[in-house]
Design goal:
alpha/beta; Rossmann fold; 7-stranded parallel sheet; 12 helices; 16% strand; 5-stranded parallel sheet; 2 domains
């Protein structure tokens, strides 16, 4: 009998997969105190993990642990060194959240470009007849967008961009130009030069030493004054202080942030008060459909692991 510890509640559709198996037991825990988790994790064979951290102390407290199944594709919250040392498999929900994140990018681009909050308030305040005095908004049609990072989400996003007849440029030094061209994108070799001519920039890169603070004041100051920056990947890619400065000095028109360097962000983070930023709480995948798919895949990865048929595309190489 394999025991699965579900750290933080997941969609019931994932739980149902475990209920259907007589060779698995499970327990859902929502209390994230480390001492509490150490007691719970000591006899489990597998865990599911959402946003809470799985550090060295917790991993070492789990002698039977064989697989960590992440509810998502990022794994910055896992101590990879400890997991590798104990030969623990790390799995992710690859391929199930791409559409939801890509839609969220469009939700942000359209909301900022079309002044959704401003327009809504204008009508509610009885200023309908004054609409011609409002600042003009932006179309996405035929605009230039740079997709930085061309993994699964980037590939999904480009299809939606093409539906708006946008001119799509792609920066990803790890993806073959032929693949980018196949999806209708134009390959970019020099990020800092290309970004100067873009109307929109959407970030889809992992957080690494190479990408940390990649978007800084130097980059932002080189962009068009009516450009918009969107980040649904990792908060550390953008220097938040520099972004706030750039917005206040009208270097760019606006930004959409679903992720932050620190989550949750401090309430004194100036971006939270900046009206040129459209914010969401790391919720690009928080749709009914996506959370269901992610829960099912998270659990199925564990089942497949013990059945000896886990898809290699779901496994993170440690």
């Amino acid at each position: 009998m394999k025991k699965v510890l579900i750290i933080e509640k997941i969609h019931e559709s994932g739980i149902e997969l475990l209920k259907a198996r007589k060779d698995f037991t499970y327990e859902v825990v929502e209390k994230l105190d480390i001492n509490f988790l150490k007691k719970k994790i000591k006899d489990c064979d597998a865990i599911t993990l959402k946003l809470s951290k799985l550090n060295k102390e917790l991993i070492e407290a789990a002698p039977k642990l064989k697989i960590i199944s992440r509810f998502g594709v990022g794994y910055n919250n896992v101590d990879l060194v400890s997991a590798k040392k104990k030969s623990i498999t790390l799995a992710i929900t690859a391929g199930v959240l791409d559409a939801s994140v890509a839609e969220h990018v469009f939700f942000m681009m359209l909301s900022i470009s079309r002044g959704v909050n401003k327009y809504d308030k204008f009508v509610r305040d009885g200023n309908f007849s004054e609409r011609y005095n409002l600042d003009l908004t932006k179309e996405l049609w035929k605009q230039k967008i740079l997709i930085a990072g061309f993994g699964r989400v980037g590939k999904n996003l480009i299809k939606k961009c093409k539906g708006f007849e946008m001119n799509v440029f792609v920066y990803d030094p790890y993806v073959n130009e032929k693949i980018i061209n196949k999806f209708g994108g134009k390959n970019i070799l020099n990020f800092s030069e290309a970004i100067k001519d873009m109307d929109y920039v959407s970030l889809h890169m992992p957080f690494t030493k190479e990408t940390e603070n990649m978007i800084n004041l130097k980059i932002l100051s080189s962009m068009k004054k009516n450009s918009i920056m969107i980040n649904t990947s990792r908060g550390e890619i953008i220097n938040e202080s520099d972004l706030n400065t750039a917005l206040n000095k009208n270097m760019i028109l606006g930004a959409g942030l679903d992720v932050f360097a620190k989550e949750p962000p401090d309430l004194n983070n100036p971006l939270l008060k900046n009206k040129k930023v459209f914010l969401s709480p790391h919720s690009a995948t928080f749709t009914e459909q996506c959370t269901s798919r992610m829960a099912e895949t998270t659990v199925q990865n564990i089942i497949d692991f013990f059945d000896g048929k886990l898809d290699k595309s779901m496994i993170v190489k440690l």
